Amino acid sequence: MALLHQHLTALPDPAAEEHAHSERLSALIRAEIARTGSIPFSRYMELALYAPGLGYYAAGKQKFGLAGDFVTAPESFPVFGRCLARAAMEVLEQLGGGAILEAGAGSGKLAATMLNELGARGVLPETYYILELSTDLRERQAATIAQVAPEHTGRVRWIDRLPEPRFRGLVLANELLDAMPVEHFKVYPGGVTQLSVAWHEDRFDWVERPAPPAVVNRITKLDLAPGYVSEVGLAAEAWIRSIGERIDAGVLLLIDYGFPRAEFYHPDRATGTVMCHYRHRAHPNPLILPGLQDITAHVDFTAVAKAGADVGLELLGYTSQAAFLIGSGLDEFVRASDPGDVRAHLALTEQIKKLTLPHEMGELYKVIGLGRGRNLELRGFRTQDRRGRLELRAG
Length: 395
Prior knowledge:
Elements: E1 3-4, H1 16-36, E2 39-40, H2 41-50, H3 73-76, H4 78-95, E3 99-103, H5 109-120, E4 128-131, H6 135-148, E5 156-159, E6 167-174, E7 183-188, E8 191-200, E9 203-210, H7 213-220, E10 229-232, H8 234-246, E11 247-259, H9 261-264, E12 275-278, E13 281-283, E14 294-296, E15 299-300, H10 301-310, E16 314-320, H11 321-336, H12 342-356, E17 365-372
Parallel strand pairs: 3-4, 3-6, 4-5, 6-11, 11-15
Antiparallel strand pairs: 1-9, 2-8, 7-8, 7-10, 8-9, 11-17, 12-13, 12-14, 16-17
Helix pairs in contact: 4-5, 4-11, 5-6, 8-10, 11-12
């Protein structure tokens, strides 16, 4: 088996208690590796992020904001949540009512912002569900909502599994798919190998194994050059199919960073898209600091659309975050802002720049809508229609 060593990026040293936490998770991962010699990267990523009580999202480490490892749009830019509330209002009005389900609600700021905006407009959901597995994050979300949107706390309900039997309303996920485990692969002239994780010389390292049929079937159609390394998001696709089956009428709205398939597997992106975040430093090595750093991979939006189509969801729209926010009334918030209140007006304009400029979040982040029901549409997709870029008829 070939070992593929990876250069370690210089990062701040973790505190003693963080190091001890990471060692406990490492021991858990090593024990699983010991049974078979290696584990798929998807399984390593799952344990590193979600192992009960130890994984990055399952433990108590501060993740969001300046005191954490990264910043997300809902955490820092309230106008983002207000625009998404407009989209939610459209869905609820077209359906004549319904619920909102937010999957992976972070600190709870998006839920609080949306509830306040919807309340002010008199279009509140019957229930605001939060699908969250982390006990720590549930507690933080509850505290945030109680502080920011106290009059709406009775409308919020936490769930740990997808709704049964059917759901009517809006399902919303912001930066969720990028944190789902991915299969890692490498292309050779004679086929495709799976990049797995082993324990070698006192550290985690890459090994190559035969790739599973689902990966081989996907990748052999792409005619990638030998040596090409990338990912396949089978877990995200399965999640979309699972939740899509439960939508009786409504919209699945997903915001994340990624590309259509042709851009995702572009020749210039031959080392893959896996990226880690630790104390606001980005680096490409997921095999260090288990439990202390976020691990992400970009989203193949062609695969997202196809997964939705597999369970009968219609592709309602696909566009950039900037275009979606503008179409969802971002300009109305600007017009309503008082230039005389210099501090507030400048804060709003700075938020808008971060959310919409191409070199900030406006272009890298995309929005895709999948729906079930008659004539559902969202204004956010009217500004710019990129559905053709997904090349869904290409197979």
